[in-house]
Specification:
Elements (H helix, E strand, L loop, with lengths): L28 H11 L14 E4 L23 E4 L8 E2 L8 E2 L2 H11 L12 E6 L22 E7 L7
Antiparallel strand pairs: 1-2, 3-4, 5-6
Length: 171
């Protein structure tokens, strides 16, 4: 009895560039993502973690599997959106900035994302304290509400009020 080796990719193919008229294939997803950043989308994020933790989509919602036929290829100006996969029931937090698809399950990661990608003046927040985050117009931001997406302009900053400065016992 012979045992067939398990193929890790569809039909053993190398990952392929999803852009139309680009026939590039690479040995690894890391190399393919470098290619996408260099030739197609300089804003495509860098990944330190394996591809299977993310879902890659075209702007119209089509899932990109990096094995796609030419008829499903991306146009030259299309961008790839990246969604992190979470376990069912995980409380998700959403970035409130226009056209930003960042989602995470940790408040500290949302704050870090805002500070590094949208608002360099957003303060470093201390664990154990409660805060109210507001827009410049005074609207309270609830990061766990999916409708918070696209509520803050790219040029706008966020304001932060301390509600409680008590650090819980044991901290």
């Amino acid at each position: 009895m012979t045992v067939e080796p398990v193929k890790t990719r569809k039909q053993g193919k190398r990952p392929r560039c999803p852009y139309a008229n680009c026939k590039t294939t690479k040995k690894s997803f890391a190399q393919l993502f470098d290619h996408i950043r260099e030739l197609h989308d300089p804003a495509f994020p860098e990944f330190r973690i394996v591809k299977r933790l993310y879902t890659f989509k075209a702007e119209d919602g089509r899932i990109i599997d990096f094995q796609t036929d030419e008829k499903y290829a991306l146009g030259p100006d299309e961008k790839i959106t990246v969604e992190k996969r979470f376990y069912e029931g995980t409380k998700l937090l959403y970035c409130p900035y226009d056209s930003c698809s960042f989602v995470n399950n940790l408040t500290s990661n949302i704050y870090y994302h805002i500070r590094t990608c949208h608002d360099v003046n957003f303060p470093m927040l201390i664990s154990g304290r409660s805060y109210i985050i507001k827009t410049e117009e005074g609207k309270i931001i609830n990061f766990d509400d999916v409708n918070v997406r696209d509520t803050v302009r790219h040029s706008a900053g966020l304001l932060c009020d301390i509600v409680s400065s008590q650090v819980p016992e044991g901290m």
